[in-house]
Amino acid sequence: MSKIKLLVAVPAVLVLGVLLVLGYLHANQPFRDFAVSEKKIVKDKWVETADYKLKVLDVKEEKQKEAGELAWSNLIVSVLIENKKHQNIRSQLLGETFLSSEKASSGQALDILDEDGHSAVLKFGKAIPCQIVFETPSRDIADLTKVWMTVMQEKGHQYTKYVYHF
């Protein structure tokens, strides 16, 4: 009876030991570096990302409410967007687009609207005129030279940051 227990216990202990060592080695792998490259977006010129093409046409500010220091504005960036995927990339683009400043992120894109003011449908292979709307405190965009639009795309461990300076 003790030989059977020994034949079962020894391989079980060996397997558990190997799993413990492999788990320890896996948990202590060196951290993978993420590479970030930066590309500039120039007004009236196409910039091509992995999933779409983007051209900035115009920028304007619409005051929303005046409440002293807490005044809010909509910063509206008019763009042409050409979808290169066979799916609607609107939500992806909303998640990747935000305003930045020297201090911090000033706000994420609220919506992407078509010419009629409805949520834009970005169809494959067509350049659609759209407006990217950012709601942000007016004090953050009082001087547009200190604010810029950033589109951040990630593919694996490679990030590409597309920057448009107003």
From TrEMBL:
This is DUF4352 domain-containing protein.
